[in-house]
Amino acid sequence: xxxxxxxxxxxxxxxxxxxxxxxxxxxxxxxxxxxxxxxxxxxxxxxxxxxxxxxxxxxxxxxxxxxxxxxxxxxxxxxxxxxxxxxxxxxxxxxxxxxxxxxxxxxxxxxxxxxxxxxxxxxxxxxxxxxxxxxxxxxxxxxxxxxxxxxxxxxxxxxxxxxxxxxxxxxxxxxxxxxxxxxxxxxxxxxxxxxxxxxxxxxxxxxxxxxxxxxxxxxxxxxxxxxxxxxxxxxxxxxxxxxxxxxxxxxxxxxxxxxxxxxxxxxxxxxxxxxxxxxxxxxxxxxxxxxxxxxxxxxxxxxxxxxxxxxxxxxxxxxxxxxxxxxxxxxxxxxxxxxxxxxxxxxxxxxxxxxxxxxxxxxxxxxxxxxxxxxxxxxxxxxxxxxxxxxxxxxxxxxxxxxxxxxxxxxxxxxxxxxxxxx
Amino acid sequence: xxxxxxxxxxxxxxxxxxxxxxxxxxxxxxxxxxxxxxxxxxxxxxxxxxxxxxxxxxxxxxxxxxxxxxxxxxxxxxxxxxxxxxxxxxxxxxxxxxxxxxxxxxxxxxxxxxxxxxxxxxxxxxxxxxxxxxxxxxxxxxxxxxxxxxxxxxxxxxxxxxxxxxxxxxxxxxxxxxxxxxxxxxxxxxxxxxxxxxxxxxxxxxxxxxxxxxxxxxxxxxxxxxxxxxxxxxxxxxxxxxxxxxxxxxxxxxxxxxxxxxxxxxxxxxxxxxxxxxxxxxxxxxxxxxxxxxxxxxxxxxxxxxxxxxxxxxxxxxxxxxxxxxxxxxxxxxxxxxxxxxxxxxxxxxxxxxxxxxxxxxxxxxxxxxxxxxxxxxxxxxxxxxxxxxxxxxxxxxxxxxxxxxxxxxxxxxxxxxxxxxxxxxxxxxxxxxxxxxxxxxxxxxxxxxxxxxxxxxxxxxxxxxxxxxxxxxxxxxxxxxxxxxxxxxxxxxxxxxxxxxxxxxxxxxxxxxxxxxxxxxxxxxxxxxxxxxxxxxxxxxxxxxxxxxxxxxxxxxxxxxxxxxxxxxxxxxxxxxxxxxxxxxxxxxxxxxxxxxxxxxxxxxxxxxxxxxxxxxxxxxxxxxxxxxxxxxxxxxxxxxxxxxxxxxxxxxxxxxxxxxxxxxxxxxx
Lengths: 423, 671
Prior knowledge:
The complex is a heterodimer. Chain A has 18 helices and three strands. By secondary structure, chain A is mostly helical.
């Protein structure tokens, strides 16, 4: 055991590291292609985004190595401290932060570097959630525990929502998967799914059609299983709540959301079509990806991205470059790598002896998953435009470092999985 | 501990499912749906039309008549402009700071990212000094485009001009032309538009989201090159064309010369003319308006549009038809008492010719002889069958290209006029006209009207002894010198070659010692015929037709000088200079002592008479609006130019209202 601890690199899950490196390199090349400029053809030109990204990747590797060298116990012990610091930073950024593109999300660190506390909130929240849920007397099924766990997630969410950074806020919702894994009732997921479906249907279809459909379904259920009194009561209550929700959907939509959010949703739902205005970005993004066909146009040959038809193409819309220059083949490779990474993380999480490590692992998987799905769904017009980076691929130091920290903490915990239970 | 162990499959399932959903969607938009691929090329690829150079036109000796000359525009892309020495810049282009700001503002309004023209058509000198220092002015560039240029400033009506296409033309072209394109509007530029314009090329350029060009699409694989327009080789001889234009200075009229052996038009003067360079460049609009206002109508293509009674120059044709019909023989004689006795002494002759035969009748232009010949012709089918005789005569005249369109290769040709029997039927009642009624046709008067081109073509036919080639202005097309097939077909006029000799004898005598004796060229046998076209509105038009030399003819010519008087006085000398210049390339001293300078300097411009009816018409047409001022000015200018004050051009207002009909032979025949 001692020998294992001494040569801790031996215990690192190298497959995950390789996937991580592959994604970083893919990102670097695609950033190069996205901002390619004949005047700066050198991929190591540090005036450009791809030059900078190279530095970010190198520094991310240093950060990863440092994390691997840390004492594991230290991570669990300091989880509350990380959380508090992050929350304080999130509060500070609201007061003294720098506003970029409408989001008060950045803290100037001097020397041209800026820090985005919301990025770091992801791993500190995961750590504290893991720490809390792994305590022996805590059970998610217990309402009190559930509320505390929810509170841990909700506090940074609230602060980030105030920036307002909708994308990052949404990411924290994915942590419900962690709660589910730790015992949250499956009905929670089902009810959330049903509500989302109802909400969107209410926007698209006449309310009365939905109500008729709901009543029909309930009638069918009662006809089939009506003998069970408890079930019948539940179903009828559910129906009442659903009908109420359907009626609330439109007012919520029109009063609860800001106009710019609403038009983006309208665009995706097909309620409006404005290819020159709101829909421009997404339409151009779709054109770029769609024009890649099977094998893509080739490296640096993507005309849509090269000639600036797609905005934000090195950050939020980086997948356009992948789709355009590498085609469907490239899309399959990138999404395949993500899926492989996610399944690998689940596998790693499940092989942990310590619940702390397992819960943290699920947190990592949920957050990466959420980022990937939202980012790509947005790029292909399945979701409204939400500024959210593609993990490891999008340009930007904060995002790369936070994902690196997120992942490498898991790798560190995993490398010690043979060791003791930290809880 | 792992009480919810199985839930990992649910979570993994969610991961897999959603990623598969994304992949399915990606598969659809990337592989199945090819719309996006098209959208992408629409986004990026712009077609840019490359305009070919319009074909140049050369004269028969290879001298350039019109070609393309590059003019230079200074262009600017406002967003690329960086601070520079504005003072120096303005000095180079000869503009002030205010003008600079105005131009920049205009360019910026058009588009900050796209190229717009900053200054149009700078001089070659400005261009050179600007080009040298271009690097000092980022954002600016020069752009070259071709304009038509005419080194000799000559043959304006023949060449015609080009202009921007109008909406109806665009519609008719089925999308070939687009606004801003140029197209031939008149003359050869119009007739040969499809040859001259060449073939447009398309350049597929990639542009970025701001429409800035970024390079060729697919390395130019789908580009087509512009094919320059074909070169046209005109039949014109610039030497005589220029001489003709000079001789016709300050005169109204035309000169048409044809090479009989080919039908090629050697000289095509329409006077007054204008400098074709006026219709190019910055001042085009103003100049065109000025020219439209000119009362002498320089845009009127007189050689093919003006119609004149041929007068006595018609007599050889009359004689030929009569010989062919067997009405007369060369030996047929007539005793001329100075008038035509058979018709109450009309028409009169200039003097008592005595006994004349065919040749001497032509040489001395005896009206009585030809009245006799014409009467015989009209009675050929019996005294009561004038109509049938007339129709057969008319048919014979038409064969010479007289009264029908010759189909020359520039637009708006007139067919002249040879009246039909139905015309007389309408004028009189049917059968109410006889040979004597239409006797003035005998001497080329009455309703007979020919264009100068038709007159020249008749001479070419006589020179060829009975056939002509369609007169044309473009000898060959392109580098391969393709000749249109229609120009190589002999058109026979149905007269036996043997009948030409006596007529030609007479015509030779016209020049040797007849009405055009003053224009005899030493050493060259020219056969001609003078004519005086009756003009009810003023002085008669001077007409002369001829060909030379008599053996192996090289040139047939028709000259009309309006409102100048006798054929022998003005038209014949001018024709003789052209003929000699063409045959010898020089003009020798004449026994008669005439010399070109006298004719060049003579101002024979008629006084402009604006009749009330015309006034109304002119008012209606705003472009051609004539003010009293402009008439006076035009006249004053012309007079100034000629330096010689004409005292002979008094308007013959008396005759102004007189109607021209065939019933009465008009006035006396001068020759």
